[in-house]
Amino acid sequence: MSRKEDKVKDDKKNIKDQVEDKIDDAIDEVEGNDENAEEQADTKDQELTEEELLKEDLQKEKDKFLRLFAEFENYKRRTSKERLELFKTANQEVMTAMLPIMDDFDRALNELKKSGDENLLTGISLIHNKLKETLKAKGLERMEVEQGSDFDSEIHEAITQVPAPSDDLKGKIVDVVEPGYKLGERIIRYPKVVTGK
């Protein structure tokens, strides 16, 4: 029996070895498939990564283009606005030079009213109105400031302060010494006023 037992043991061992070999082969095959799958997955990842990289690059280029386009649109808008502003205020020097002439006309009209010569007053008034309307057509506008108006340091230039003739004129404009003018929306000469204290 010992031979039989030895033979059975050898057969079992052989079967066991064969089973282990088969299992090892199966494991190797599965691992090989896993490695191939990993290699394929790595290749797909690389392909996807390359595709994703290309998409990212395309998106970056689109962003650059949009930003450049937006900058260009802002530049066009800004320069056209500056150009319009320049056209509106290009004659500012000429208008500023004309302001003393307007002041002289106002003083002359006040003196002619005192003299009582109606013909002379009418002639000078016509010339004064024509000059005033021509300058107004070019954008010059007289700022309306009256006695009793609130003083605003942003748009008025205070020459001096005098005691207020009445309590309601305290901190307000008592007299307008020189009128102010605007060219479009820009003040080119601030009205010179006397305020009450």
Automatic annotation (TrEMBL):
<dbReference type="GO" id="GO:0051087">
    <property type="term" value="F:protein-folding chaperone binding"/>
</dbReference>
<dbReference type="GO" id="GO:0051082">
    <property type="term" value="F:unfolded protein binding"/>
</dbReference>
<dbReference type="GO" id="GO:0006457">
    <property type="term" value="P:protein folding"/>
</dbReference>
<dbReference type="GO" id="GO:0005737">
    <property type="term" value="C:cytoplasm"/>
</dbReference>
<comment type="similarity">
    <text>Belongs to the GrpE family.</text>
</comment>
<keyword id="KW-0963">Cytoplasm</keyword>
<dbReference type="InterPro" id="IPR009012">
    <property type="entry name" value="GrpE_head"/>
</dbReference>
<comment type="subunit">
    <text>Homodimer.</text>
</comment>
<keyword id="KW-0346">Stress response</keyword>
<dbReference type="GO" id="GO:0042803">
    <property type="term" value="F:protein homodimerization activity"/>
</dbReference>
<feature type="compositionally biased region" description="Acidic residues">
    <location>
        <begin position="26"/>
        <end position="40"/>
    </location>
</feature>
<dbReference type="InterPro" id="IPR013805">
    <property type="entry name" value="GrpE_CC"/>
</dbReference>
<feature type="region of interest" description="Disordered">
    <location>
        <begin position="1"/>
        <end position="48"/>
    </location>
</feature>
<keyword id="KW-0143">Chaperone</keyword>
<dbReference type="InterPro" id="IPR000740">
    <property type="entry name" value="GrpE"/>
</dbReference>
<protein>
    <recommendedName>
        <fullName>Protein GrpE</fullName>
    </recommendedName>
</protein>
<dbReference type="GO" id="GO:0000774">
    <property type="term" value="F:adenyl-nucleotide exchange factor activity"/>
</dbReference>
<dbReference type="Pfam" id="PF01025">
    <property type="entry name" value="GrpE"/>
</dbReference>
<feature type="compositionally biased region" description="Basic and acidic residues">
    <location>
        <begin position="1"/>
        <end position="25"/>
    </location>
</feature>
<comment type="function">
    <text>Participates actively in the response to hyperosmotic and heat shock by preventing the aggregation of stress-denatured proteins, in association with DnaK and GrpE. It is the nucleotide exchange factor for DnaK and may function as a thermosensor. Unfolded proteins bind initially to DnaJ; upon interaction with the DnaJ-bound protein, DnaK hydrolyzes its bound ATP, resulting in the formation of a stable complex. GrpE releases ADP from DnaK; ATP binding to DnaK triggers the release of the substrate protein, thus completing the reaction cycle.</text>
</comment>
